Amino acid sequence: MSMSVDGLISGMDTTALISGLIQAEAAPQTALKSRMSDAEKAASAYRTVNTTFLAVTAAAEAALKAESWVPAKATSSASSVAVSATSGAPTGALSFTVDQLAAAHGMVRHDAAWTADTSAFSASATTLTIKGLDGSTRGTPLDISATTSLKDVAATINAGDYGVTASVIQIDAGKFSLQLTSKKTGAANEFTLEGGGTFDVTTQAQNAKLTIGTTNKYSVSSDTNTFAAVLPGATITVSKLETDQVTVGVASDPNAVAGKVSTLIDAVNSALSTTRSYTSSAKGSTAALKGDYAVTSLAGRLLDAVSGAIGADGSPARIGIELTRDGKITFDKAKFVAALEADPTLAKRMVAGTPASTGPDGVVGGGDDVAAVTGLAGRLLDVSKAASNSTTGTLVAMADGQDSQVKDIKARIEAWDLRLAKRKETLTRQFTAMETALSGLKSQSTWLAGQINSLPSYR
Question: Which of 16, 257, 371, 437 is the most buried (most CB within 10 A)?
Fold first, then answer.
C-alpha cells in the first residue's frame, strides 16, 4: 500500500478522509445554499415583473390626465417660424409677416492708444457711467484711474450689475476696442454711456415685430424673438424676416391621444409576457416563479380589466381594443382614431371613465344620481397599483419576503461555516492523535522485534 503524506504510519489519506467526512456533514448547509440561490432568483424575478407593472401604472396615469384628451398640434408654413402649443390650446390660425427681429443694444469705443488689452483705459482719471433708456444710472459709476488697464475695465463691468457685457476685441495687429452689449434684447434695454471717451452705436436695440393680417393690419411686438400671447395656447418664435405671409395654426391631434392609449396597451402586453415567462409551468420549465399563483392571478386581472364591458358603453372593442386567443391585447390605432373623431366623448369615457354626477336635479342623493364608471385605464391602474405600490404592493411584498429569507438563510449558512470549521479541527486533532499513537506502537514493535532477534539460538 502506498503511504500518504498525511498518514505516514497508518497509510491512510487522512486529508481526503477528513474532507469527505466534512462534506457529508455539510449536506444541510449545501441544501441551505441551494435554497438561498432560489430565494435570490425569486426576489429578482418578482422585481422584474414589478417593473413591468410600474410601467402600466405610469401609462395608465398618463391616459387618465385631462390634458391627454385635449392635445394640440401646432403647424407653421415657414421653417424660420417655430410654433408650439400646450395641451388644451384652442384651435385657431394666424397669418403675419415678420417685419423686425429683436436686437440687443451695442456700443463700441476705438482708441489708437490701445495697442494691447493691458493698455491704460485713459490717459487720465475718468468716470464711466452706464444709464438705462429712462436715464437712470445702472450700478455704481466706474471710477477709472490713469493706470487702469482696458481688460480691467471690462472685467469690472462684467462683474457688476450694469446689464451689459464688456468684451475687449482685437480688430487688427496692435489695435484693440471695447465692445459693450446689452445682456437682453428689446428696445427697453437700450443704454447710454457718460464719460470714458466716445462710444459709437454698433447695434440699435429693438423689439421683434409682427404685422398681422392683410386687411386692417395691426402690429404686435416682443422684446425677444418669442411671442407667447399672440395665438392663445401657442408660443411663436421667429428667426428671420419674412415679407411673405406666414401662417401658423393649432389643431386637435387625435394621434397624440392614440399614442397615449397605445403606450398603455404596450405596457400591459409587456407585463403579461414577462409574467408568463417567469411563471411558466411548461414541461422542463426552470422559471424562477414556476406556477406561482399569486403572480399568474395578476396577469388574469389585467386581462379581466381589458375584456369586461365598460358601463353602458359596452366592450372596448368598439374603440379598437381587443383580446386575442393567445391572451394578448391588440390595439387598432386607425379604429381608435376614427372612433375618437366620430364621438370623442365615447372614446374618452371608455378609456378614462365617467365621474359620478348628481343627475338632472343637481341634488346629491336625489334619487337620480349617476354612479361613477371606471374606464379601461382606471381598471388597469387599480390592478397595477395593487401589485406594485411601494408599501402595499403584492409583488413588492413578495420580493421583500424573499429578501428576508435570503438574510435568514445566509445567517444559518454562516453558522454552519463555524460549526464545520470546528468539526474539521476536531477530526484533524483526532487523526493526528491516532497517527501519534500508531507511531508509538510501531516503535515498541520494532524494539520488541529487536529484542527477540537478539536472543541466543539453541539449535
Answer: 257
For the record, the C-alpha cell of 168 comes out as 475687449
Please tell me the distance from the alpha carbon of residue 346 to that of residue 328, in angstroms, as a whole number: 24
CA dist., res. 55 & res. 84, Å (int): 28
Q: Which segments within 72-116 are labelled E, that is strand?
A: 72-76, 81-85, 92-100, 104-110
Q: Which of 66, 56, 71, 75 shows the shortest CA–CA distance to 259?
A: 71
Q: List pLDDT tens digits, range 12-37.
A: 677 777 778 777 877 887 787 878 88
Task: Specify the amino acid at residue 219.
Answer: S
Q: How far apart are CA 114 and CA 104, in angstroms?
A: 26
Bridge partners for 83 per DSSP: 236
Distance, CA of 14 to CA of 7 (rounded, Å)? 6
Whole-angstrom distance, CA of residue 202 vs CA of residue 188: 17
The most distant pair of C-alpha atoms in the chain lies apart, rounded to whole Å, by 155
Q: How far is CA 302 from CA 20, 153, 187, 260, 344, in A?
A: 53, 70, 60, 18, 25
| Cell numbers for 455 | 536472543
Q: Are 73 and 87 in contact (CB under 8 A)?
A: no
At 175-226, the pLDDT tens digits run 999 999 999 999 999 999 999 999 999 999 999 999 998 889 999 999 999 9
330: β partners: 322
The whole-angstrom separation of Cα 245 and Cα 421 is 89
Instruction: Write the single-letter amino acid at 282.
Output: A
Fold of 104-203: Alpha-Beta Plaits (3.30.70)
pLDDT digits (tens, 9 = 90+) for 242-281: 999 999 999 988 999 999 999 999 999 999 999 999 999 8
**pLDDT tens readout for residues 389-403:** 988 999 999 998 888
In 173-320, beta strands by DSSP E: 175-185, 191-194, 200-203, 208-212, 218-222, 226-227, 234-238, 242-252
CB-CB contact of 175 with 115 (8 Å)? yes
Q: What is the SS3 assignment for 78?
A: coil
Q: What is the DSSP string of 107-147?
A: EEEE-TT-SSTTSBS-SS-EEEEEEETTSPEEEEEEEE-TT
Alpha helices (runs of H) in 288-375, residue ranges in sequence order: 293-307, 333-342, 344-352
